[in-house]
Amino acid sequence: MPDSIISLYQRHSEEWDRLRGRSLFERPWLDRFLALIGPAPEIIDLGCGSGEPLAAYLIGRGVAMTGIDSAPALIALCRQRFAAHRWIVADMRALPVTATFDGILAWDSFFHLNHDDQRRMFASFGRLAKPGAPLLFTSGPSHGKAIGNMWGEPVYHASLSSDEYHARLSENGFTVIDHRIEDPECGKHTVWLARRLTDQA
User: Which residue ranges does the record assign to the Methyltransferase domain (predicted)?
Assistant: First the structure.
């Protein structure tokens, strides 16, 4: 079922983009993320969707964006809206990118992966992050799986436990800056803000 997510977003890309809220309730977390980064940063957004509102906000703050999404239709919208930035059709589990970045974002995307794929992603986060780079991602509130519904179709979500996320981050050179379970000021999203240690090669 996790692999059906790609087809789901591809087939419903225009509707998803139309319904995606632009209120930017995520802004306080994005601002904290940006505060950990120097001027003119290069950011990678894993699961960038249509580029609005998150990438749009970051671009407006001077970020050079590399966006990754597995749905070609969503990447097409990003290229149309923000042609000066880099947009790549790819599965985050098999990234073609070899560069390192000043920050990594995986908002409302990482949690579509199954448990084992999430575990493997932490090595990718470490490989992509420059020393000191922040990582901002969302997860579920506790270990488990949940099946949502979009357009009458099942949507897979999974989460590791908070303890395991802490351990996986530490093993791959990150320290947790903040973690909020179902943050009431952020649409009840469970949010992680971590940072790669500066002494990591």
Answer: 43-132
CA 116 to the chain's CA centroid: 17
H or E stretch including 123?
helix 115-128
pTM above 0.90, yes or no: yes
C-alpha to C-alpha distance for 201 and 170, rounded to whole angstroms: 15
Q: pLDDT tens-digit profile of 178-187?
A: 999 999 999 9
- Residue 118's alpha-carbon distances to 11, 32, 65, 144, 166, in angstroms, are 24, 24, 23, 12, 13
> Which residue's entry shows tokens 């320290």?
175
Domain boundaries along the sequence of the chain = 4-16+26-104+115-196
DSSP 130: P
CATH architecture observed for domain 4-16+26-104+115-196 = 3-Layer(aba) Sandwich (3.40)
**What does the pLDDT look like over 123-150, one tens digit per residue?**
999 999 999 999 999 999 999 998 888 7
Q: 134 with 103: CB under 8 angstroms? A: yes
**Rounded Cα gap, residues 25 and 97, in angstroms:** 29
Please check whether residue 82 is in contact with residue 97, taking contact to mean a CB–CB distance below 8 angstroms.
Answer: no
